[in-house]
Amino acid sequence: MNLKNKIYLNITAGEMDGQVYRWEDKLKEVNTMGLKEVCVFPEYLELKERKKMYPELLKSCIKKVPLVHIRDDMEKWELKFFYDNFKTRWFNFHEHSFDDLLRGEWRGFHKHLLLEFNYNNRISKLVDLKKIGGLCIDLSHLWSAKNRNVTEFDRCNEAAKNHKVKCNHLNGYDAKDMHDLHYVSNNSELDYLKEIPKKFFGKIIALEMYNTIEEQLKFKKYIVKIMKNN
Fold first, then answer.
1. Number of H helices and number of E strands within the chain?
2. How far apart are CA 222 and CA 23, in angstroms?
3. Using one digit for the tens of pLDDT, what is the confidence trace for 43-77?
4. Which of 48, 59, 186, 230 is 20 to 30 A from 198, comparing alpha carbons?
C-alpha cells in the first residue's frame, strides 16, 4: 500500500492550554474538502456531545472511518454505529478499560478492539492481548517509553515481533521532556519518526492532532516525505 494511503487525517476534539478544539470545526473542513475517509477520536466527548456528533457524521461526505478511539463509557450501540455506517473495523482503547471488556460491555467486538499503552511504567494485570485484536501503538507514547526506559516499550516490542500491531496514533514528540504532543507546532516535532523501526507501524496510521484538517494535511505530506527517506 502506498504510504500516503495508510496515513489518515483525524476528527479530534479536546482542550489544551485554554484553547478548545471542536469536532464541528474539523468536520466542516472535511466536508469543504470532500474527504471520504478519516479517523474519528471522540475520546474526550461526553455522551451528550457524541449523540450530537453522530447524526452530523451521517450527513457528511465521510464514507469510511478505519479507526475510532473509544472511551470506557461508550456503549455497544456506538461501536455498532461506526461498524455499520462507516465500515470501521478497529477500535482502540486504553488499558484501564479492560474492566469494561471483561464485564462484556463490548461483547461481539472483542476481535476488533486494540489496546493503546501509555508510558507510565504501569501495565494493568488485566491486560491480555489474546482477548482482543492486538495493539494500536501510539508512536509518541512508544518513543517516550523507550527513552524513559519503561516497561511499555518492551511489551510493544514483544507484540511487534508477533505481528500484533494493527494501527497507530501519530502525533508530535517533545524530545527534551520525553512526552507526546497532541498539538504539533512544527515539522521538527515529527522528526522522531525517522528513528522508529518499521515493525512498529500498522496498516492504519491515524494523526492524533488537535490541529486543523488543513494543518494535518501539511504535516501528513511532511511525514510521508521523511518516512519514504527512512
1. 7, 13
2. 24
3. 999 999 999 999 999 999 999 999 999 998 899 99
4. 186
- Structural domains of the chain, count: 1
**Band of residue 1 on the pLDDT scale cut at 50, 70, 90:** very low
Q: What CATH number did the domain enclosing 174 receive?
A: 3.20.20.150
Q: Is the pLDDT of residue 101 over 80?
A: no
Owning domain of residue 106 = 3-228
Which three three-digit cell numbers place residue 31?
466536508
Cell numbers 476481535 correspond to 111
Find where cell 474539523 sits: 26
Distance CA 14, CA 174 (A): 19
Residue 120 one-letter amino acid:
N
166: left (phi over 0), alpha (psi -120 to 50) or beta: alpha
DSSP state of 171: -
111, 168, 216, 184 alpha-carbon torsion, rounded to 10°: 130
Q: Which residue's entry shows cell 471520504?
A: 36
Would you say 211 and 179 are in contact if contact means Cβ atoms under 8 Å apart? no
| Contact between 167 and 205 (Cβ < 8 Å) | yes
